Amino acid sequence: MNTIFATATARGRAGISVVRISGPQAFLAVEKYARPLPEMRKAALRKFCRDSEFIDECLVLCFNEGSSFTGEPVVEFQIHGSIAIERAVLSALQDLPGFRLAEPGEFSRRALMNDRMDLAQIEGLGDLIEAETEAQRKQALKLFSGALGERASKWRKELIRAAALLEATIDFADEDVPVDVSPEVMDLLARVSDDISDEIQGSGAAERIREGFEIAIVGPPNAGKSTLLNALAGRDAAITSEIAGTTRDVIEVRMDLGGFAVTLLDTAGLRESDDVVESIGVSRAIERAKSADLRWFLSEEGDPESFGIGKAHDLFVTSKADLKGTSGLSISAVTGFGIEELIAETLKRLEQMASGASTAANQRQRHALELANAALANARIEVSRGPDFSELAAEEIRTSVRTLEALVGHVDVEHVLDEVFSSFCLGK
Question: What is residue 244's predicted lDDT score, i.e. its pLDDT?
Answer without folding.
Answer: 42
